[in-house]
Write a structure and sequence with these properties.
Elements (H helix, E strand, L loop, with lengths): L6 H10 L6 H8 L4 H11 L8 H12 L9 H10 L6 H5 L2 E2 L11 E2 L21 H10 L1 H11 L5 H4 L1 H8 L16 E4 L12 H20 L5 E3 L5 H4 L3 E13 L5 E6 L6 E6 L5 H5 L6 E8 L15 E4 L10 E2 L17 E5 L11 H13 L3 E6 L22 H13 L6 E4 L18 H4 L6 E3 L4 E5 L2 E5 L4 H8 L8 H11 L28 E4 L5 E6 L2 E6 L7 H6 L7 E6 L5 E5 L4
Helix pairs in contact: 1-2, 4-7
The structure holds 2'-deoxyadenosine-5'-monophosphate, fe (iii) ion (FE) and zinc ion (ZN).
């Protein structure tokens, strides 16, 4: 009987559970009568989800081909080198480091710390080995002491971090920790909403973008309608019937421009028909609010529709223009953003439970500050009123996020970065619940909304860590948090005069006014073509928590508290070239009963 499996089936099967196998070995397995059994056996001997370094996979694969007595692999040498070379390396050493990118088979990036490793493409001497029955070879591999040792090394990646990153581990884990205090209050009920994780529906087609913008428009139209009596869509306007009338119309901002005569114009678009309606102002008084408008957002404008100056059946929207009003009437300005209403106070928890907020930890970066982190851990352990921690993404520094990033990496393996994060979070008492979202440095898609980390990274964290997508709404005992990493902050600050990413709060205020965390499509923000716009702020939160710009900020707008939690990473050379001067080692604490916020700074502790 010949196997119905092909080589690529085998690599896919095993790659799917994180086990790397070279095509040559796959073909040997395929030659067996009982391919399925062999695959199962391999899967079962490595717990599902275990990832094996390319280097280790090579060792195993090599064993498929060789009888016991030919050319032993270099595991011993590797171990030796890993231990002796385990000091934190200096810059020159780092230049020799190689970062293996994960392959599409789900293979781990390997920590190729030395040149003795057998590399993927450098498998030699295969044909020189004695071919043996694959099933026997497999038994042999699985009983091979060294292979078992290697396996346990991966299962215990967290425990073996000391070997690979001794200096960092020494600072954070080899120190006397204070006894954690019993937490003062019981847990609260919580509810997570607006998380794309597991809900992604877009298929990446262009038509999905149409659906995304229709959905955005519909959500905003309904928010704006609440504040305006009769609100028109552009496609509802008939120039012959409505010419000369005063009306309020909502549309997506296609573009804005100021004419040579200093008139202000907005081209509004209907998402269904793509029809454009031009709105203009001749008076300077509109300038300030006009400058706050960005492309792709949804606004409403009020004015008078002109009479078309020709007659005929083919009269369309391009024959008319709305001349906008200059004045606010009955509390309604001539240009309206969906905005958040002034908050009425809602029922809050009566106990003084506190939530700590942090972000942009950038574990794995040279510039990460472990001693500042220790201050935070100690403070949490010693403050029993804190029951929750929110983490706003960029948990790790990641790998390959920008050109030449590896020069600035202390931990060059993404799995080790998350394993380190897991160890660090383990020092937070179990009864402190952590909610963590992701940012542009984390190992998830860059396009927003971002789903949360896969299990292959989440497995390094204890049960008190709940991973969520970006953005996300978390209702904690009646208090609504909106966590959004903040990738759009740069784009918004570039689009609106007078804003500066070093001062994130006024920018976050625009998110609230626009009821959207990333209103501009393009620039440095990638939007995923989902069929629903998860980035719309459906319900105004009590607290908007962002990060990304590595600057601390705290403020309030119409009763919504805004926090930007700075970073745990010092200035990188990239940031230096851009003139970004980060604030390192900050956390905010909010009291759920009073919504009062306090700022803490590690270096002052
Ligand atoms: O972002 C850290 C800081 O660097 C933040 O101020 C944004 C800025 N940044 C990040 N990427 C870019 C690009 N591509 N251009 C300009 N400025 C950028 P972090 O996400 O931690 O790298
Ligand atoms: Fe960051
Ligand atoms: Zn970021």
């Amino acid at each position: 009987m010949t196997s119905q499996y092909s080589e690529s089936d085998v690599t896919k099967e095993l790659g799917g559970v994180g086990i790397f196998i070279l095509p040559d070995a796959a073909s040997v397995i395929c030659e067996s009568d009982d391919t399925t059994k062999i695959i199962d056996k391999i899967k079962n001997s490595y717990d599902s989800g275990v990832t094996i370094d390319v280097e280790k996979a090579n060792n195993i694969t090599e064993n498929f081909y060789k009888s016991e007595n030919t050319n032993e692999t270099t595991i011993d040498e590797i171990d030796e080198n890993e231990t002796s070379g385990s000091k934190r390396k200096d810059k020159e050493d780092k230049e020799n480091d190689k970062i293996d990118k994960p392959t599409d088979m789900g293979v781990s990036t390997s920590n190729n710390d030395n040149d003795n490793n057998i590399k993927n493409n450098e498998m030699t001497n295969i044909s020189g080995g004695n071919y043996i029955d694959p099933e026997n070879a497999l038994d042999e591999i699985m009983s091979n002491e060294k292979a078992v040792k290697e396996k346990s090394k991966f299962l215990n990646r967290k425990d073996t971090l000391n070997d690979r990153h001794p200096e960092l581990c020494d600072i954070m884990f080899n120190r006397e920790l204070s006894e954690p205090q019993d937490r003062l209050y019981n847990e609260l009920n919580y509810k997570i909403k607006g998380d794309i994780t597991g809900e992604s529906r877009g298929e990446g087609k262009f038509s999905d973008y149409r659906e995304l913008f229709e959905n955005r428009f519909n959500k905003m139209f309904s928010l704006l309608s609440d504040r305006v009596g009769r609100l028109y869509r552009i496609c509802d306007i008939d120039p012959r019937r409505h010419g000369g009338e005063g009306l309020t119309v909502a549309g997506i901002v296609n573009s804005t421009f100021v004419s040579d005569n200093d008139n202000y114009f907005i081209d509004l678009e209907d998402p269904d028909t793509n029809e454009i309606l031009r709105v203009g102002w001749t008076d300077d008084s509109i300038k300030e609010v006009f400058e706050d408008i960005v492309t792709d957002e949804v606004i409403a404008v009020r004015g008078n529709l002109s009479e078309p100056d020709r007659k005929g059946k083919d009269i369309g929207l391009s024959d008319v223009i709305i001349w906008g009003d200059d004045e606010t009437r009955r509390g309604r300005p001539p240009i309206m953003f969906p905005d958040v209403p002034r908050k009425k106070s809602k029922k809050k928890p009566s106990q003084n439970i506190e939530v700590a907020m942090i972000g942009d930890i950038h574990i794995g970066a040279n510039e990460f500050y472990p001693r500042y982190w220790n201050k935070f851990v100690d403070w949490i352990r010693e403050n029993p009123q804190v029951r929750y921690i929110f983490v706003v993404g960029d948990i790790v520094e990641g790998v390959g996020v920008y050109p030449d990033q590896k020069e600035e990496l202390d931990i060059i393996d993404i799995y080790d970065q998350y394993a380190m994060a897991g160890r660090m979070f383990d020092q937070i008492p179990d009864d402190v619940q952590i909610f963590a979202t992701v940012g542009n440095h984390d190992a998830v898609r860059l396009a927003e909304p971002q789903p949360t980390l896969d299990e292959e990274f989440r497995k390094y964290f204890s049960d008190n860590v709940e991973f969520v997508g970006n953005p996300v709404n978390i209702n904690l005992g009646g208090v609504e948090f909106l966590m959004y990493h903040g990738m759009s902050i740069n784009a918004i600050s570039e689009a609106i005069p007078g804003l500066d990413p070093e001062d994130p709060i006024p920018i976050m205020e625009h998110m609230l006014k626009k009821r959207h965390v990333a209103p501009i499509y393009g620039k440095n923000v990638r939007l995923a073509p989902e069929t629903e716009d998860y980035l719309v702020i459906d319900d105004p939160p009590d607290v908007l928590h962002c990060g990304h710009v590595h600057k601390y900020g705290q403020g309030s707008y119409n009763g919504v508290k805004m926090i930007n939690t700075a970073t745990w990473q010092g200035q990188t050379s990239f940031q230096k070239s851009k003139g970004i001067d980060p604030e390192v080692g900050y956390w905010s604490v909010i009291n759920l009963s009073t919504l009062e916020i306090e700022k803490f700074v590690s270096k002052n502790m």
